[in-house]
Amino acid sequence: MATGKKTRKPRSNRARAIAPIPPGFGTVTAYLTVDGGLAALEFYKHAFGARELMRRVTPDGKLIHGQVRLGDTVVLLSDRFPDSTTAAPSAIGTTTVSLHIYTKNVDALWDRAVAAGAKVAMPLENQFWGERYGRLVDPFGHHWTLAMRVKMSRAEMAAKQREAEAAFARGEHPGRDSPYGDA
Length: 183
What we know:
The structure is a single chain. By secondary structure, this protein is an alpha/beta fold. It has two domains: 25-81, 2,3-Dihydroxybiphenyl 1,2-Dioxygenase, domain 1; 95-173, 2-Layer Sandwich (Signal recognition particle alu RNA binding heterodimer, srp9/1), CATH 3.30.720. The protein contains four helices and eight strands. The chain has a four-stranded mixed beta sheet, with helices on one face. It has a four-stranded mixed beta sheet with strand order 5-8-7-6, with helices on one face. A hairpin with a 2-residue loop joins strand 3 and strand 4 (73-79). Helix 1 (37-48) packs antiparallel against helix 3. The longest helix is centred in the C-terminal third of the chain and has 16 residues, at 154-169.
């Protein structure tokens, strides 16, 4: 005779499916090595409006692993540790990559980053490829390019391209003589 109670099916011993890429991550994620990981977390929050997702810290205050979200992108970072296979820019005098940020208001983000302590390596200005673009170096030695697409006339783009080509022909490169490394 039915009692009206539903019987529960026994739980399966199968593990819940795990997505190979964690939620919120893209296919490629930058992992920065710095000297001063906790200060870097704070800088990225103030300079770029990053939202801290997590931090793991050693008892003596070094960042083992941190995560911040910049717009729709997660950036990972940690302090440099002895015997690590990665180096902070301060340890090698430069960095081998630039992190590129597209934003809806590049002037506001630029001003915010500079006010927070980023150094200008290449001034923010309209470029021949149709973007307002500039390059910064953060206090930890990482290079950041900030940009947004802008409407430019063909004549303005052509003039900017001629200027850039002439500079390259003279052996000049924007930011090459920067005091902040090989920005």
